[in-house]
Amino acid sequence: MTLQFLADGLVMGAMTALGAIGLTLTYSILRFANFTHGDLISWGAYLTLTLAAIIGMVLPSGSIGPFSFGWPIVAAGLVAMLLTGLLALALDYLLFARLRRHGTAIILVIASFGASLALRSLLEFLYTPSPIYFSRELQIAIPLGAGVRVTPDQLFTLGLTAVLVGVMHLLLTRSHIGRAMRAVSENPALAGIVGIDVAAVVRTTWLMGGALACAAGVMLGLTVQIRPYMGSDLLLPLFAAAILGGIGSVPGAVVGGLIVGLAESLGVQLIGANYRAAIAFLLLLLVLLLKPTGLFGVRP
Amino acid sequence: MSAGALLAVNGLVAGYEMGVPILRGAGIAIHGGEIVALLGPNGAGKSTLVKAIAGLVPVFAGSLRFDGQEIRGALAHTLVQRGLSFVPQTENVFTTMTIDENLQLSGHVLAKSARARQIAAMYGLFPDLERQRRLVAGRLSGGQRQMLAIARALMIEPKLLMLDEPSAGLSPKLTAAVFGKLAEIRKTGVTILLVEQNARAALALADRGYVLAEGQNRHEGAAPALASDPAVAHLYLGSSVATAL
Fold first, then answer.
1. Which domains does chain B carry?
2. What does DSSP assign to residue A226?
């Protein structure tokens, strides 16, 4: 047994955390489990890949410093974050908003399940099911001592996650839009009464959730690979992280994501990679049985 | 009657479901500076009327004019910007936020300096709230929560403050405290529309009153006249007259 699982688990956990933040926000504000969130992660990665190819025709595509990627991917990632946010908004406009007016939560969940299948199949149709990579360049892992090695891309992933989480935390605790989101999440009717434009808060939530999902997708693409199923395969760990942290809590999603990531990579080392998916599922079951409100949750 | 009124509601048909109206042609008028009580037996449509004014219940027919403009169909949050404040009967504060955050949030339409001034004014009016400003509202007692809900609604310096049964669930002592506050608030010139089950307390405070039954107007007039009208007492309480009036 080596401590390598710590590094791998933190990197996986960071990506899970970014995905789980978006999931927990949409869950707490729109009150349904959105199964398309995983596919927003995949779409974010593919959009970045496509945009990077276009931008690469203009910008020099050499890699930056020790990283495997160049400026085209950075620029493409930023644009793709916006586009993924808009994709989430479009899904809401075309599907969820219409169902919200009449339907109950279960109708929205099932609709999102269907939309998820459609989004995934569309990616398979457009890009084929075979895995692709942002870069074929081999990365030399840096030894950190105690037998732990990380690649520069993995360090970048951890750093970017820390920055994005910090920005999100400040936004939600210090800004008006953050307070407004908390208000809508607790009581949408009262939020309207105190003068909050609930529809605008819903739009902001989709934009934020989509953008963070895209960031997670790009990181997953950088450190693992890009596949049409990359995001939907992550869905179970995402839900486990969001529920473990407590629905609606951003710090909770981050802590939950890191715990899920670490537990998975420890499990892979102890039991074997075949059981990776079972570990998130087991965690999810345990939380639901022992503490359904999660670590930082308030609502039962 | 409704000419020059701050709020004029005419022939209002409204309800939660199309084809099942709860209000069937109700109308009221409120002039600036007045306190108007909206009374009636359970199920008369009093709450539905204030919720319809606040943009929370679909209106099928009739007109709602506030401050000279038609507000029928306006979204709830846009009415706040026009100076219409509403205190619902239940779930009227954000329980996961502190007292301070509740007031900050309600004052977000104001400029920063005006918001700070209003919060200070609210703490002047409700000293109990200032002492616990960092306390999460979910931990307040029923009476304090009602005070916070009223303070929250006053943050925007409303032209009209509407309250839906502010005495519901409160002890007689706390009810008296809430009505005492409303009397203080009226001195600052705020116009108030008060929905109440507690007719005696409401008419003691109000200038005028309306009595609704089955979604329609039944009686209206000056508060003392309504309070002493046996027909009102009869409608309000059925056979067991007098105890509420």
1. 7-237 (3.40.50.300)
2. B
